[in-house]
Amino acid sequence: MKLAMVGLGKMGANMARRLLGGGHELVVFDPLPEAVSALEAEGAAGADSLEALVEALEPPRSVWIMVPSGDITEDTVQSLATLLEAGDTLIDGGNSNYRDSQRRAAFLGERGLRFIDVGTSGGVWGLAEGYSMMVGGEVDNVEHHRTIFETLAPAADRGWGRVGPAGSGHFVKMVHNGIEYGLMQAYAEGFEIMKAKPDFDLSMRQIADIWSYGSVVRSWLLELIGEALADDEDLSAVKGWVPDTGEGRWTVMESIELDVPAPVITLSLQRRFRSRQEDTYADKLLAAMRDQFGGHGVKKA
């Protein structure tokens, strides 16, 4: 089936390549002309505007957007809503907040347009390994786009599925990322404990490799730890500053709204905040309090 893709960042471009490799016809647009040119060289038809992109498709059209969550997604949806016709489908494969996806589905539905939200996992490895996709939308419309999901997934019958109505795909991906926060933090803490034990002169890379086979804690994340440690076990070139893209925050906020305890995910998010601070006022105050009540002394700045 012929598909349009808007947004050719690293992940969007790799998804486009996987679709082209699977025999799909593809029209692509990105504000950066060089990103469009790169896909044209690999067989895609390029468009220099959203208008040209829509005109290149026969109705009913399907347009997949892969742009950052927030204002740029909203602007893209609003723009396409004025260009698409009743019966066309807009697919959001980015990391949008599920509530925004529910709202956008209703907004587009009032105009006769259809909406699918796809929580997409796989990162830079998706081109080779395939993408895990959590799909939200109407059953018949998801089925109509089945060949696209089968091509992008690790296999036609695994790694993807319709999980519920509009918004559910991004909701499940939100929780997926919250769980990811907890897994990453647990690995990081465990390896730090081992690194801090000088008696055994442990190799972190070797341990990551051992645990990657047969262990109950084996995972793709553990394999990636091994890759990250391959050339520099001390990570001397890496600053311990860890950002968050929003989905961990949304998961914690949802747990509060639902009265569902999520201490591991919550603490993992808080730990990321802590990684961005150096010599905090709170730590200084803790030191001062210990000195005041116990005379423990303080290290002078």
Key terms:
301 residues; single chain; 13% strand; elongated; alpha/beta
Compact summary:
Helix content is 50%, strand content 13%. With 301 residues, it is of the alpha/beta class. Strands 3-2-1-4-5-6-7-8 form an eight-stranded mixed sheet, with helices on both faces.
In DSSP terms, counting alpha (H) and pi (I) runs of 4 or more, how many helices? Answer: 14
Give the ordered list of helices and strands: EHEHEHEHEHEHEHHEHHHHHH
Strand residues, percent? 5-15%
* Helix-strand makeup class: alpha/beta
Shape: elongated
Number of strands: 8
What can you see in these coordinates?
With 301 residues, the chain is an alpha/beta fold. The protein contains 14 helices and eight strands. Strands 3-2-1-4-5-6-7-8 form an eight-stranded mixed beta sheet, sandwiched between helices. Helix 4 links the parallel strand 4 and strand 5. The protein is elongated. The chain starts with a strand and ends in a 7-residue tail after the last helix.
